[in-house]
Amino acid sequence: MSRNEIDTSDFYAFEQLLSDGERERLHAVRDFMTAEVAPIVNSHWEAATFPHEIVPGMRRLAIAGLPYKGFGCGGTTFLLDGMIAMELARTDPSIATFNGVHGGLAMGSIYLCGSDEQRERFLPAMARYDKIGAFGLTEPDVGSGASRGLTTTAERDGDTWILNGQKKWIGNATFGDLTIIWAKDVADDQVKGFVVANSSPGFTAEKQQHKIALRIVQNALITLDNVRVDEADRLQGANSFADTAEVLRVTRAGVAWMALGCARGAYENALRYAVTREQFGRPIGSFQLVQDLLVRMQGNITASWGMVARLSQLQDQGLAEDRHSSLAKAFCTVRMRETVGWARELMGGNGILLEHNVGRFVADAEAIYSYEGTREMNTLIVGRSLTGINAFV
């Protein structure tokens, strides 16, 4: 992609919010995704396989757990972290999700809820991608109701805990090294977090088949059958679902950035198509209705970018709250869904072919729209902040 196309995509020059050094890191990620991921992503998406060969390159980029300070992590800004999440999703939302689960949810759980000893023990290896993490909250029958209805149990037995239950839609779990398992303590009925080695006896992870979205992400159905976990591996700062929610508040902002990246990737491919595809003897980009679609897409992208950029600034200032992340996640995923649909519409029938690099974004958008809090659940969080009235059931 030419520099002119990149500037057209960043219509209000949001990259200028970054320092020179941060922009260099962002562009290094862009170059890596363009050179190493873009050429292979369609074949892996179609086969529903993960490109393990790209992990060494991601290790060199050092982008896992980027905003966390110390313990081998980057200690940079949430703004840079968000733009990198967008950059990953701009080429492929599955790769952005892989990194978001590993560096955001798994590492974030340890960083925010673990002791210093646990941070030192786990985070440096995870920051190097030497240990890959997963995040086990959702269950087969429990999604939006996780705050009250977890059925996975944890029972204290001396210096160990015994975990039983199932987790569903757990990205990275089929090949990862450790999974953060959230379970309800049978003694006090409170949710607690545990760092569970995937090699533990009684821990099984079965790949979920026949997905139509994020096919590169290796989601698993996890079964925990009397899995024993040392007290030393219980997250010492995770003593209720409120602590789990703190992790989700931070990572939900990252999902909003991914939604922007998904929309931007579809738009850029549609724009390239519009200026090269000819009908009636001229590029279709010269037709008024096509330009209208492009402007609608650009408006969605620019509005979403403004929202998430300000959200990341609030995070960097320590001012971000649940309502801020929830509004961004709800708004940006709706705008993403519109944008990828318009990109597909612009391409006509060619939009459903993988080779034109829009159909994959259309499908992947459906998963981003739902995970880490549906639009409806995030709307209720924002609505509560506006009215002071809790409308949750």
Instruction: Please compute the radius of gyration using only Cα atoms.
Output: 21 Å
Tally the helices. Answer: 12
The proportion of residues in beta strands is 5-15%
Q: What's the name of the CATH homologous superfamily of the largest domain?
A: Butyryl-CoA Dehydrogenase, subunit A, domain 3
The class by helix and strand makeup works out as: alpha+beta
How many domains would you count in the coordinates?
Answer: 3
Overall pLDDT metric: 95
Succession of helices and strands = HHHHHHEHEEEEEEHEEHHHH
Which overall shape is indicated by the principal axes computed on the Cα atoms?
Answer: globular
| Top-tier CATH class of the largest domain | Mainly Alpha
Alpha-carbon distance between the two ends: 48 Å
Name the poorly predicted regions: none
Helix content: 40-55%
CATH topology name of the largest domain: Butyryl-CoA Dehydrogenase, subunit A, domain 3
User: Could you tell me the number of beta strands?
Assistant: 9
Main beta-sheet strand count, sense and barrel state: 7 strands, mixed
- Tell me which CATH architecture of the largest domain applies here: Up-down Bundle
Structure overview:
This protein is an alpha+beta fold and 393 residues long. It folds into 3 domains: 3-127, Acyl-CoA dehydrogenase/oxidase, N-terminal domain (Butyryl-Coa Dehydrogenase, subunit A, domain 1), CATH 1.10.540; 133-240, Beta Barrel (Butyryl-CoA Dehydrogenase, subunit A, domain 2); 242-387, Up-down Bundle (Butyryl-CoA Dehydrogenase, subunit A, domain 3), CATH 1.20.140.10. Helix content is 53%, strand content 15%. It has 12 helices and 9 strands. The strands form 2 sheets. Strands 1, 2, 3, 4, 5, 6 and 7 form a 7-stranded mixed β-sheet that branches. A two-stranded antiparallel sheet has the order 8-9. β4 and β5 (191-197) form a beta hairpin. α9 runs antiparallel to α10. It is globular, with a radius of gyration of 21 Å. It starts with a helix and ends in a 6-residue tail after the last helix.
